[in-house]
Design goal:
This protein has 432 residues and is mainly alpha-helical. The protein has 18 helices and two strands.
């Protein structure tokens, strides 16, 4: 753990770690739902209760990651350009691909070959059919990060759809970031139009396919929701564009080119609006969009707006915390321990779903559903994933750092790469 420097954004570590906990808790519930339970009546009653929405809205954490990732990317790019580092497109892409793929390839390999031998039981054939076979047949689309458009219904390591979205947006980022540096007055409105365009596309897709916005709606078609909306880059990119804009303005504020002076009353109002907005995004639609009668307008507007609005709320939290308007929120999110925990987040993300599959489909008798049992399963999954992730980091992520040093030193980049790796800024392909 190190003391943050003025140009770092320590609150992002806390946001990423807390979002990862939300992801795992949501997937723990999804895995439990996939197996048989003894108290089905209580489970259905719980789903109909409004407080289940806090768990079912865990999908919003993905939009937090998209916002944070693009904000870091934009902010790091601006910093490098300010210091006159020359851009190398090949190294820019190579760095990203190596860092994403090294641990992911191990997970794909294990899923395609070994995972079917790790258990047994009446539900175990699901593992062979939907985990092992999908990776054995479609590993190539997983490692090329295209399976959110190719083999969508037979996806290898299903949660890797997020990596596809992230990598595909990363591919177009050089054009946008260079334009943002040179022509901000043109590029910023263009990015805003991209956000609006994504909102419009999402509305159209939801309208045409009659998608249900609320996952606890028993009358909806969840498969259509994933296939036509949830996995696709062009319907999920609005938070990413918002993050690019956020990173630009944070950089300008850090360079004192802009100033953000707000009195306490305005800050309190914005914080209340922000927290109220996040609450509305989590609970919205519970009483209006869950009935047997389909509300076409309501579902389409909810799907189109909820994720960009959530991203705007997250953007205010980041902006406030990096400009001394965060108060206790900034203190919590910037605790040094998150520096350590954040190093495990990617590997935990890759491994926890497979562990949940093994636990769920190894069972020989039905579960009893309760909040306590679900919390118990969550903490067990989290720490078991952390242990496996530690091994994965030693096998892949740490060696890749060393290999990158060797590769980039040949391009005269020893000092800059060291600074990038220490600060966590993903601009290791920029050289002087």
């Amino acid at each position: 753990m190190t003391t943050p420097t003025p140009d770092q954004l320590p609150c992002l570590n806390g946001l990423k770690c807390l979002s990862m906990l939300w992801v795992i808790y949501g997937h723990t519930f999804a895995a439990l739902r996939a197996g048989p339970i003894t108290n089905t009546k209580y489970y259905l009653e719980w789903l109909n209760n409004w407080n289940s929405r806090f768990l079912l809205s865990a999908t919003l954490s993905v939009d937090t990651f998209l916002t944070i990732g693009s904000a870091l990317l934009s902010y790091g790019f601006m910093k490098a350009k300010c210091k006159n580092f020359r851009f190398n497109l090949f190294l820019y892409y190579l760095h990203r691909y190596l860092r994403l793929t090294a641990p992911f390839a191990i997970v794909v390999l294990v899923s395609a070959t070994l995972v079917k031998y790790m258990g047994s039981g009446p539900m175990w054939p699901f593992i062979d059919q939907n985990v092992q076979q999908t990776c054995a047949n479609n590993w190539w689309s997983a490692l090329l990060y295209v399976q959110n458009y190719v083999n969508v219904t037979d996806m290898c390591v299903g949660l890797s759809w997020y990596l596809n979205v992230d990598f595909q947006l990363y591919l177009i980022s050089p054009v946008l970031l260079n334009a943002l540096c040179k022509y901000p007055r043109i590029c910023l409105p263009f990015l805003a139009l991209c956000v609006l365009g994504c909102v419009g596309v999402s509305f159209y897709v939801a309208w045409v396919h009659n998608l249900n916005a609320i996952l606890s709606n028993f009358y909806g078609n969840y498969n259509n929701y994933e296939t036509y909306y949830y996995y696709l880059t062009h319907t999920r990119c609005a938070p990413w564009f918002i993050g690019v804009i956020l990173g630009y303005y944070i950089f300008k504020l850090k360079q004192n080119e802009f100033t953000l002076k707000l009195n306490k009353t305005v800050v309190w109002i914005i914080w209340k609006v922000c927290l109220g907005t996040m609450l509305a995004c989590s609970l919205g639609g519970y009483s209006t969009l869950r009935g047997e009668e389909y509300d076409r307008y309501g579902n389409a507007f909810h799907i189109a707006l909820v994720r960009p609005v959530w991203s705007l709320a997250i953007s205010w939290i980041i902006l406030a915390c990096t400009n001394d308007y965060g108060g206790p929120v900034n203190w919590v999110l910037s605790l040094p321990i998150y520096q350590v925990l954040n190093r495990f987040s990617y590997s935990i993300y890759l491994t926890h779903a497979t562990i949940l599959y093994l636990i769920t489909y190894n069972k020989k008798r039905p579960d009893y559903f309760s909040n306590f049992n679900m919390a118990y399963d969550f903490w067990g999954t989290l720490w078991f994933s952390a242990g496996i992730s530690y091994l994965l980091i030693l096998m892949t992520e740490s060696p890749i750092v060393v290999i990158e040093k060797m590769l980039f030193e040949r391009f005269g980049k020893r000092k800059q790469l060291k600074r990038n790796l220490e600060s966590g800024v993903d601009n290791a392909t920029l050289k002087k």
